[in-house]
């Protein structure tokens, strides 16, 4: 088996373990990457992207990562919280009014994030195609009574996490979670990660090969689950019933869906390099307009703090504004030249001059 890519000699044991998966465990195709202190030390791939072994595995192969996407969806929610648009302690119903049903009026957003909401499944039977109908799934979850008192237990929200957190994101931004992630994170950072994959990328996706069914006498988790089809576990994994359809995870519907369990990232090393390149571009684009805007903001805040002076009456503030304006007029090549940062002098409110009567 030929292993493509690069590997630092200090990490040859990683490469050996990678090769062992092909030689001893029947691996068909895979990739592995390790980044240490911002440096790529392992970036390897090998094998094929299909069961028939007709498509070689490429460096930019896309792979279905299932519930890893929950973390990416959570990052989108945290970004909104950082911007002051989402409060994790606020009721979900503040952003999603229809959610205030079946005793969920006060259920906080943080319970959605921590799998404590008691909504890992929908009790009523859903049609098979409901899995790919966002409005159907979110409406069913809004109507659903929690399976336990929210906040008292944890239960993995395997298929509902994306709909619950994603609907909050959609209500705040007006964008689907996949669109919000693409516009706010993937494109600015150069990430080849998709929540809802465009059909034009299907040729880059590695097909998943189903594991063989357990032999008689071996543990069979799904057979055990279906012994009680009305249980929360059975409903969580088999409602909608489409989850049991053979080849589902290689279908166009699955790849294009925006729920948090069926998305495909790029090879990890490429994503890390793209992130570093994006950060470097942002640093290179730093322009005095940003400095000027920063000083204008400081001027406004200082003016608000002072009861006696308007913004531009303070000589120190005016000087800072003039320095930024002059810097804005300098050539771009000179602006981007490295220079030592200087600490700005601390702003102080001017002292009121004492009159002769005060001194007597």
List the topology elements.
Blueprint: E1 4-7, H1 12-25, E2 29-36, E3 39-47, H2 68-82, H3 109-113, H4 134-143, H5 161-173, H6 177-189, E4 193-194, H7 221-225, H8 232-238, H9 252-256, E5 264-265, H10 268-284, H11 288-305, H12 315-328, H13 332-335, H14 356-359
Estimate nothing, just give the exact number of structural domains. Answer: 3
Q: Given the helix and strand composition, which structural class is it?
A: mainly alpha
* Adjacency order of strands in the biggest sheet: 1-3-2
Q: How many β strands by DSSP? A: 5
**Known CATH architecture of the largest domain:** 3-Layer(aba) Sandwich
Q: What is the CATH level 1 assignment of the largest domain?
A: Alpha Beta
The CATH homologous superfamily of the largest domain is termed DD-peptidase/beta-lactamase superfamily
Share in helix? 40-55%
Cα end-to-end separation: 97 Å
Order of helices and strands: EHEEHHHHHEHHHEHHHHH
Shape: globular
Summarize the structure.
This protein has 360 residues and is mostly helical. The chain has helices at residues 12-25, 68-82, 109-113, 134-143, 161-173, 177-189, 221-225, 232-238, 252-256, 268-284, 288-305, 315-328, 332-335, 356-359; strands spanning 4-7, 29-36, 39-47, 193-194, 264-265. The strands form 2 sheets. The protein has a 3-stranded antiparallel sheet with strand order 1-3-2, sandwiched between helices. A two-stranded antiparallel ribbon has the order 4-5.
């Amino acid at each position: 088996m030929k292993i493509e890519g690069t590997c630092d000699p200090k990490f040859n044991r990683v490469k050996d373990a990678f090769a062992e998966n092909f030689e001893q465990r029947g691996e068909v195709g895979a990739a592995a990457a390790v980044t240490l202190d911002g440096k790529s030390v392992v970036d390897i791939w090998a094998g094929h992207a299909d069961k028939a072994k007709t498509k070689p595995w490429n460096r930019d192969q896309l792979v279905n990562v299932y519930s890893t996407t929950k973390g990416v969806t959570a990052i989108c929610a945290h970004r909104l919280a950082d911007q002051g648009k989402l409060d994790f302690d606020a009721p979900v119903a503040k952003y999603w009014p229809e959610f205030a049903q079946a005793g969920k009026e006060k259920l906080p957003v943080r319970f959605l994030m921590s799998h404590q909401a008691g909504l890992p499944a929908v009790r009523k039977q859903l049609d098979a195609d409901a899995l790919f109908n966002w409005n159907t799934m979110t409406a069913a979850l809004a109507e659903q009574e929690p399976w336990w008192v929210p906040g008292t237990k944890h239960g993995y929200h395997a298929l509902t996490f994306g709909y619950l957190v994603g609907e909050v994101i959609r209500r705040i931004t007006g964008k689907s979670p996949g669109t919000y992630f693409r516009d706010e994170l993937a494109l600015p950072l150069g990430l080849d990660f998709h929540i809802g994959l465009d059909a034009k990328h299907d040729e880059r996706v590695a097909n998943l090969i189903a594991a063989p069914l357990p032999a008689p006498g071996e543990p069979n988790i799904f057979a055990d689950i279906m012994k009680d089809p009305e249980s929360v576990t059975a409903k969580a994994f088999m409602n909608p019933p489409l989850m049991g359809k053979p080849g589902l995870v290689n279908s166009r519907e699955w790849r294009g869906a925006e729920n948090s369990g069926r998305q495909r990232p790029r090879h990890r090393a490429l994503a890390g390099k793209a992130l570093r390149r994006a950060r470097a571009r942002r640093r290179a684009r730093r322009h005095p307009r940003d400095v000027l805007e920063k000083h204008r903001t400081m001027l406004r805040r200082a003016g608000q703090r002072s009861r006696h002076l308007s913004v531009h009456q303070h000589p120190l503030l005016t000087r800072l504004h003039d320095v930024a304006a002059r810097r804005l007029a300098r050539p771009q090549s000179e602006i981007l030249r490295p220079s030592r940062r200087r600490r700005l002098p601390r702003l102080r409110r001017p002292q009121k001059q004492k009159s002769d009567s005060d001194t007597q």
